[in-house]
């Protein structure tokens, strides 16, 4: 991470600590900014481990983001009690430690079942965001619209003023979907987009391996989530969007027989939606 950005993130953590009354035990940059796969417009995903109950709403920390100008900062707040109860990833390996004391040695390994359910629900949530849907999606899912990019670009980039066109949400959907399939087949955990693409390719028998790699390389690494201006890039992006519904349905079928994990998880709206989508 660039020294200037790291300093800004450290200040944001210190401000968040002040806003929470000194409850921030540790801060970690996670995601693409940590693993080196970020693009200029990538968000800064900042995980805060806090003391006490998990009762801090990330939006209440918005004032701390002023220390990181021109970049969107997404705070993720987890209590140390949550990690002790559920386990978690090795934070200092999957992220970049930037504030407080490294709490990684105190966190037991993450249990696979709640991790897997969280990833499945994340995948469904991206499906809903892309379609602007508040209700239950019906299997098989259909493209959001019949536009050039099949509607996958409409809710593509989240800004302070709402969504604008782009492909960040689509890449989140695709990499979350590949993470889910890797979980189904190997029961392994994944914590970044790049790791998801590589692990999915390593499965060796997935029909959408070229699709996932091509989408990540073009829409993330080359276009930086922006709508292309080059005719060839436009054609390739449109082809990716055309193929996306088949990939979405492939992921949904991959998890259909995994519901033995679910009874131990407290039901929530996304959980109920997933059940209704696959078993109406």
If you had to describe this structure to a student in words, what would you say it looks like?
By secondary structure, this protein is α+β, with helices and mostly antiparallel strands. It has 10 helices and 6 strands, in the order αβαββααβαββααααα. The termini are far apart. It has a 4-stranded mixed sheet. A two-stranded antiparallel sheet has the order 5-6. Helices cover 46% and strands 11% of the residues. The longest helix has 25 residues. A hairpin with a 2-residue loop joins β5 and β6.
Which spans have pLDDT < 50 for at least 5 consecutive residues? Answer: 261-267
Total helical elements: 10
Task: Kindly report how far apart the N and C termini lie.
Answer: 46 Å
Percentage of residues assigned to helices: 40-55%
The computed structural class is alpha+beta
User: β content, as a range?
Assistant: 5-15%
User: What general outline do the C-alpha atoms trace?
Assistant: globular
- Strand elements, count: 6
Largest sheet: 4 strands, mixed
Give the secondary structure arrangement, pairings included.
Layout: H1 3-19, E1 24-30, H2 32-35, E2 44-50, E3 73-79, H3 80-86, H4 91-94, E4 96-100, H5 112-131, E5 157-159, E6 162-164, H6 168-186, H7 193-202, H8 209-222, H9 231-255, H10 269-278
Parallel strand pairs: 2-3
Antiparallel strand pairs: 1-2, 1-4, 5-6
Helix pairs in contact: 5-6, 5-10, 6-7, 6-8, 6-9, 7-8, 8-9
